[in-house]
Specification:
The chain has about 230 residues and is an alpha+beta fold. The chain has one domain (about 50-230): Pathogenesis-related Protein p14a (3-Layer(aba) Sandwich), CATH 3.40.33. It has helices at about 1-30, 50-60, 80-85, 145-150, 170-175, 205-210; strands at about 90-95, 100-105, 115-120, 120-125, 155-160, 165-170, 180, 185-190, 195-205, 215-220, 225-230. The longest helix has 29 residues, at about 1-30. The model is unreliable at about 30-65 (pLDDT under 50).
Length: about 230
Amino acid sequence: MGREECQLRTFYKVLMVLAIIFIISLYLHLRPEKDSPILNGDKSSQEPKIDQQNMLTKQERGKSYKRPEEGISTFIGKNTSNLIKVYGKPSRIDSSPYDYDWWIYKQNDKKYFQAGVENGKVVTIFAVGNELGIEPFKIGEKVEDIYKSILLNTEILLNYNKGYYRFELSEEDLNIRPLVKLGDIFAQLSLDKFTGTLSSIRFMDKETLIKQRPYEMVYRGDSKIQTLKL
């Protein structure tokens, strides 16, 4: 019996060692690896996204952009006579749900644009043609190049008519229709996620932006705060 008990104890010891080795192997196999591309945000294995941390760091530095001195956005705020002098009379005029009318210019697809006119002044411009000057951007420009040259903010702050407005952009907004402040006007970009390029752009003054409310908006005025959604 002494010899059999010794053999039995040896068997149990071997069995325990094998069990420990199995548990350790299972743990190492299931543990997330530090070099996992998914955990580290490897863009080669994920859909391209904006570097949120880097973007917010830049935003805290208060980087801003000047209003372009050339291109079609320079007509914002000017009388329609300036627009007619350069592009002639529109092909047609359509009404809009807002206080302005759309002047349609469609000489050809490469120069197609619409100008929103209110009280004889241009308040917004929607441009599609790739031969139009839409500084500092360009129709067909790659999204990666836009991300490198322009800071895309998660929040846009402005004051108008004794009120304060804050537009809050979601991650989807930043990747599809971001908003950029250019001096005293704004540019809303339309990014084509299939081609990865800028497909169209809309310039507008602050009043038109407030009327459109294309993003979640927080308004503060007369000691009241109100959250308005699209």
